[in-house]
Amino acid sequence: MRRAVTALLGAFALAAPTANADVALTRAGKAKKPKKRVVTVKKTVAGDQGSAGRWGTVQVTLVVRKTTTIVGKRKTVQRKIVGLKVPVYPDHTDRSIFINQQALPLLEQEVLTARYTANIDMISGATDTSGAFIDSLQSALLKETTV
Questions:
Q1: Residues 25, 48 within the same domain
Q2: Do residues 28 and 100 both lie within one domain?
Q3: Which backbone phi and psi does 58 adopt, to 5 degrees?
Q4: How many C-beta atoms surround the C-beta of residue 135 within 10 A?
Q5: 19 and 49 share a domain?
Q6: In the chain, where does DSSP find H-type helix?
């Protein structure tokens, strides 16, 4: 009986420091969290001119905010369109000017609410302008992601 108790106490004495070392290592591992680094960049990208048929061309210029978050070895990238301009659009007739003054603000609003995609609704009555706008928008988005 004495031998069994002595062996049991000896085994416990040997195992106790090892268990405490494991707990200490675990606590130290929790204390050392990887640093979080956030990099934000704003970039202006102009898309190619999209053809609106016989009416002319449309060109979209985007302002994109790219946020890169790095935690340890893990990296996430988020892109958001924060601004949009249409410097080139059909304006050679009074009718073109009238249509585009109403259609372009709606298209711009669609882009800003659609997040980071060219999947937006076309404007009825401005089909050619809407198609050219979407083509130019897609071009700008592709340029931004490849640069």
A1: no
A2: no
A3: -130, 135
A4: 21
A5: no
A6: 2-31, 94-113, 127-146
Indicate yes or no: pTM above 0.90: no
pLDDT digits (tens, 9 = 90+) for 17-57: 555 555 555 555 555 677 889 999 999 999 999 999 889 99
pLDDT in tens, 98-143: 999 999 999 999 999 988 888 899 999 999 999 999 999 999 999 9
Distances in Å between the Cα of 52 and the Cα atoms of 25, 58, 95, 114, 118 are: 66, 7, 14, 22, 17
Residues 126 and 60 in one domain: yes
- Could you tell me the residue range of the domain that residue 95 belongs to? 41-146
User: Are 57 and 95 in the same domain?
Assistant: yes
Do residues 48 and 23 share a domain? no
Question: What DSSP line would sit under 103-145, residue for residue?
Answer: HHHHHHHHHHHS-S-S--PPPTT-HHHHHHHHHHHHHHHHHHH
